[in-house]
Structure formats: structure tokens, C-alpha cells
Amino acid sequence: MGKKILMLVGDYAEDYETMVPFQALQMIGHQVDAVCPDKTKGDYIMTAIHDFDGAQTYSEKPGHRFTLNADFAAAEEKNYDALLIPGGRAPEYLRLNDKALKLVQAFDAAGKPIAAVCHGAQLLAAAGILKGRTCSAYPACAPEVRLSGGQYADIGIDQAHVDGNLVTAPAWPAHPQWLAKFAELLQQ
């Protein structure tokens, strides 16, 4: 039986890290509700495509208009089985939203699966749920993981790491591993 997953997104979330999980998880029978603070069902966010093309960091290109299918104001942990946090630039400002932080904390306190990729660790760190845990993220987020009391898992860009209810990965090349491990947590 499919699970109900809350996906926290925002403008300039990474395109692949938003679109691929949203579609893939629905494809295998789950319901995914994509929400964004200050936006409602039918509104859209702009995504950004981050690529690794030889520069010292990733480059950013325009992505797509991704339409939200649920209202952030109505989102409550009790109505969902799991939480998904794409990366990109969105987590850097989503972590300033008190309700977004409380949602992350509530999912973690309930022991429900949480999947975060790339810069999604910024939201996990700001929510204070990484203390004593191991978490992967885009390498530029390693200091935030450590400063929040977590241990940074320095794994391949195409790998994923599981620590209890938390599955994390460095970036979109890890989708096969990250989504497979998240799917396994959803079956427990």
C-alpha cells in the first residue's frame, strides 16, 4: 500500500532533485504532496538545474515551473508517513521558516522516514535533528552538518547513507541509491 509523503520545496530547488523524486515515488504507488511556504495548491516554484561542468563548484541554469499540488498552511506531520527535502538553493531560506523547521522536527520525533539530498541538509541542521547522527550532503554543506553536532558522511556523489529514519545523499547523481533506500524505509 502506498504511503503519503510530504515534499518541502521552494523557489530554486534543484530541478532533478524535485521532479525525479516527485514522479518516481508516485510511479511506485506513493502520494507525494509538494508544498512551499507562502504558496498554495496550483502555485508554482521555479527550479534550477545544477550541473557539474568543470568549475570549482556547480553551475546553475534555469529549470522548470514546478506546480505545487498541496497547501503548505495545511501541512501537518500527523497526516503523512514520510518527509522529502530536495536540495538546491531553497533549503537556505526554508530553514528560516519556523513552520518548516517544526515540520522537520515533528517527522523526526515521530521516527518517520526523512529523505534529504544535497543542500537539504541545511534544513536538517537548522531544525537541530543531526546531533549525534551521520548525514551526507553536498560537500559544501559539510561544515553545517558538523556545526550542528552531526558527522558528515563523505561518500561518492552517486551514493546514499542511512542513519535510522534518515536517508541522505550528496546530489542528484545518487537518485538510484537515495530513492531505493528511501523506498526501503517506507516499507518498514
Automatic annotation (TrEMBL):
InterPro entries for the chain: C56_PfpI-like, Class_I_gatase-like, DJ-1/PfpI
PROSITE patterns: PEPTIDASE_C56_PFPI
One Pfam family recorded for the sequence: DJ-1_PfpI
CDD domains attached to this UniProt entry: GATase1_PfpI_1
Domain of life the protein comes from: Bacteria
Gene3D superfamilies on file: 3.40.50.880
Domain DJ-1/PfpI, chain residue ranges per copy: 3-184
PANTHER family: DJ-1 PROTEIN, DJ-1_THIJ_PFPI FAMILY PROTEIN
Family assignment from sequence similarity: Belongs to the peptidase C56 family.
Name of the protein in its database record: DJ-1/PfpI family protein
